[in-house]
Design goal:
Blueprint lengths: L14 E3 L10 E6 L2 E6 L6 E5 L1 E5 L5 E7 L5 E7 L6 E2 L2
Antiparallel strand pairs: 1-2, 2-3, 3-4, 5-6, 6-7, 7-8
């Protein structure tokens, strides 16, 4: 079955499937397209842009997504945010 992801050019993207037991993100995946992080159903339907960043990974319990952003001094910083969306915070 083809993915119905947002339009993209030739950009790298990754997918990370959530833990099926967490009902608010059950059957979801998180992926990156051209520096934007998206969440969608496993079949690719209902894509929602969460934030900007790269290398998204869903926590084992499915509640959080971790991702990387390059900050102003060219260093990578790891952030986490709720998988359902919300404010992102850096991990120090």
């Amino acid at each position: 079955m083809p993915w119905s992801l947002p339009p993209r050019s030739a950009c790298w993207f990754s997918r990370s499937r959530s833990t099926p037991g967490h009902k608010s993100v059950r059957a979801s995946l998180v992926y990156e397209v051209c520096g934007k992080i998206w969440r969608a159903n496993v079949n690719g339907s209902h894509p929602v842009q969460l934030t900007s960043g790269t290398d998204p990974q869903i926590s084992p319990d499915g509640r959080l997504v971790a991702f990387v952003r390059v900050n102003t001094d060219e260093n990578d910083t790891v952030f986490v945010m709720p998988t359902v969306g919300g404010k992102a915070g850096s991990i120090r």
